[in-house]
Amino acid sequence: MVDIKWEELGFSYIKTPYRYISYWKDGAWDEGKLTEDNMIHINEGSTALHYGQEAFEGLKAYRTKEGGINLFRPEQNAKRLNRSAERMMMPEVPQDKFIDALKEVVLANEEYVPPYGTGATLYLRPFLIGVGPNIGVNPAPEYIFSIFCMPVGPYFKGGMAPTNFIVSEYDRAAPHGTGAAKVGGNYASSLLPGQEAHDRNFSDCIYLDPATHTKIEEVGSANFFAISKDNQFVTPTSPSILPSITKYSLLQLAEERFGMEAVEGDVYIDKLDDYVEAGACGTAAVISPIAGIQNGDNFHVFYSETEVGPVTKKLYDELVGIQYGDVEAPAGWIEKVK
Ligand code: PLP
Ligand code: COI
C-alpha cells in the first residue's frame, strides 16, 4: 500500500507510476501506451509552447464502498475536449480512445485511488497539445494526447467550509473568445487576478461578463450557482463561460430530485440580495459554498460566513453520493472502471 495520508491531501501534483500517451501524425493517432516517464520531450517550435494550441480536461475516479471504482460522466469530458479541440484546430480524440485510456490509467495506478470515506479522489488530467516543428501562427503538424493522474483532496482550502470570493476587474475571456473552451490561455490570463485574490485572502476571483461587467460569469476554476429566495437553482448563462459538467448535473438534480426550478439565466452583481445561498461548482471544486463576495467596497454575505446553507448541503450530498455510488445515479452517469 502506498504511504499517503489521504485525509490531508490538498490539490497538488504527485507523481503516480503510469500515464497514457498517444501521438498524432500524418492524419492518424497511434495506438497509445502507458509509460512511466513523466517528462515530455517536444520540438522547440511546438505551438502549445508559443501560441497556446492546447486543451485539457479534468475528471475524477471515485472508490466505492464495495471497493469498485467509478468515473462520473466521462463521455461529457470527451465531448468537451473535442469541442475545445475544434476551436483550437486540433484533431479529435475518439470518445472510445479517451474513455479506454482513462480506465487504463486508473487501473494501472489503482493503489493511488484513495479509499472510500477519506474524502479524497483520483484526479485525472487528460490534455491535448500541438507539437512538432513550426514557427508561423499555424496549427501544429503533430499532436500529443496524454492522461496523467494523482490523488487529491479539496481544491479550495475550506472544502465544505464556506469561503470568500472577490469580483475581479480583469476578464478571463473575451465576449466571442475562447471562454467556453477548456484551453490554457484562459487559465494563463487568470493567474494574475487569481494571485491578487489569494494575496487578499480570497479563495478565487468571480469574473463578470466581459461585455458589460454587470453579471456574474464564473469563478476562475469553477462555475457559479446561487439559490434564490424562492428556491430556484440559478446559474449564469453566457457564451464565454466554461460549460461545467458538474453545473449541468446540478441543474438536473435540482429539478428532478428536489423539485426546484432550475434556471440558466442572468445573475446581476448588484442584485445579490435576491439569493440566500451561493457556491462554486466543478470537478476540482465539487461544491464549495461561497460565504461572501467582495465587490469593490461592498461585501455581500449569502447564507452565513461559517455554515453551509441547507440547499447547498443537500445538493452536495446528492451529487457526491451519486459519484461514490451510494445514491442511485441518473441513467448513464456512472462509468464503472471496476
Ligand atoms: N469553470 C472553469 C473555469 C473550470 O476550470 C472548471 C473545471 O473544470 C469548471 C468551470 C467546472 O467544470 P466541470 O464541472 O466540468 O469540472
Ligand atoms: C477541474 O475542476 O477539473 C479544473 O480543471 C479546475 C482547475 C483545477 C483548472
From TrEMBL:
Pathway assigned in UniProt: Amino-acid biosynthesis; L-isoleucine biosynthesis; L-isoleucine from 2-oxobutanoate: step 4/4; Amino-acid biosynthesis; L-leucine biosynthesis; L-leucine from 3-methyl-2-oxobutanoate: step 4/4; Amino-acid biosynthesis; L-valine biosynthesis; L-valine from pyruvate: step 4/4
Taxon lineage: Bacteria, Bacillati, Bacillota, Bacilli, Lactobacillales
EC identifiers of the protein: 2.6.1.42
UniProt cofactor(s): pyridoxal 5'-phosphate
Keyword annotations: Amino-acid biosynthesis, Aminotransferase, Branched-chain amino acid biosynthesis, Pyridoxal phosphate, Transferase
Pfam families in UniProt: Aminotran_4 (PF01063)
UniProt name for this protein: Branched-chain-amino-acid aminotransferase
Entry GO MF terms: branched-chain-amino-acid transaminase activity
Catalytic activity: L-leucine + 2-oxoglutarate = 4-methyl-2-oxopentanoate + L-glutamate; L-valine + 2-oxoglutarate = 3-methyl-2-oxobutanoate + L-glutamate; L-isoleucine + 2-oxoglutarate = (S)-3-methyl-2-oxopentanoate + L-glutamate
